[in-house]
Amino acid sequence: MIRSLKSAVSLRLCGLLLAFSSLLSFFDLPAFAQEYRRVDTDQKRIALTFDDGPHPILTPKILAILKQYNIHATFFMIGKNVHDYPETARMVAMKGHEIGNHTNSHIRLYGLGKERAEQELDACALQIRDVCGQMQNLFRPPEGATDESVLSAAEEKGYHVILWSIDTRDWESKNASAIINRVLTSLKPGDIILMHDFIGHNSKTPEALERLIPKLLARGYQIGSVGELLGIDS
Questions:
Q1: Same domain, yes or no, for 63 and 87?
Q2: How many domains would you assign to the chain?
Q3: Of the residues 97, 102, 160, 196, which is catalytic?
């Protein structure tokens, strides 16, 4: 009697699960891209990222510093800047760095709907493909602002959404030491560091980077791109 009762309960549960699965399929619920702020690891590995470029002056300075230490980073490019400075964008690709999508116009996508998010992603991807000959699977939304529409668009386009765990706020800093201290005071294995290679005023990012990298290496950290940190092909 007990076995029969258990069997009946199991069959009923299976039936409910099948019905629930069918219901989900009927409504065709959207899938959302995963967001990455950092990686959970004990290994001393971190990723360097640069937003808003390319810039005809700042980006080459940053590339020269990275080359000195044989470091590959991730550059999240704005489509319109790729269009305006194609030679600099190509230089990033030729140096072997990873390129990510940072929208075409750097508009805050939160609340604008899925269609606008798709338009921004597609327009930027087209610019990068035509200029650099690369396809991207990494996307950083401006200001890190996402909602269901943005994450759904990113998922359908095959993007990993990359945020950050350390914001250097280099865009507002007037001295390199402040930028460096923001990194070193909170640094942990698996961090994704946010910097910028396009800043409207006298940027301290190159100076900070030149001083920061030796300090990171002295602490035993391996510095690389987001793809290297996450273990994904870009």
A1: yes
A2: 2
A3: 196
Q: What is the DSSP string of 140-196?
A: --GGG---HHHHHHHHHHTPEEE--SEE--TTT-SSHHHHHHHHHTT--TTBEEEEE
Please confirm, yes or no, whether 97 is among the known catalytic residues.
no
- The model's confidence at residue 2, banded by pLDDT at 50, 70 and 90, is very low
pLDDT for 18 beyond 90: no
Six-digit token string for 5 = 């009762």
102 catalytically annotated: no
| Domain containing residue 163 | 35-230
The answer to whether residue 191 scores a pLDDT higher than 90 is yes
Which one of 51, 52, 191, 197 is the catalytic residue? 51
What mean pLDDT is predicted for residues 47-59? 97
Structure confidence at residue 21 (pLDDT): 53
Same domain, 136 and 21: no
